[in-house]
Amino acid sequence: MAATRTFSIIKPDATRRNLTGAVTKMLEDAGLRVVASKRIQMTREQAEGFYAVHKERPFFGELVDFMISGPVVVQVLEGEDAVARNRKVMGATNPADADEGTIRKTYAESIEANSVHGSDSEENAKTEIAFFFDEDEIVG
Q1: Does the keyword Kinase apply (predicted)?
Q2: Which domains does the chain have, with CATH numbers?
Q3: Which of 9, 13, 85, 115 is 20 to 30 A away from residue 41, measured at CA?
């Protein structure tokens, strides 16, 4: 199987606790390679645009507020079956339901502050990567 790419965000709850390296190590240990990475302070406009698919959901405002509450690390990850591999190492959205050894079981504070975001499909990965990265920033 050929290498594919996915998108990841290390969320404000994790960056606030200085877990960027620990989370990245878990991703790398799972066979994913970081081919682009940058630490940013997401603007309200970026967060609203990125999460626009959830605009009508009751949690949208809280999600946007959380994502702009501190720096995040946006990353492009590459590896065999990258989307599925990343989702497996992230664990279930609710850390109480996540498997032992996953990022969310290990580091998440709550279902809302669950430390990481990852693309749910290759199509969405392409869209999410393009939202934050120009092609020349991906240097894997």
Answers
A1: yes
A2: 3-137 (3.30.70.141)
A3: 85
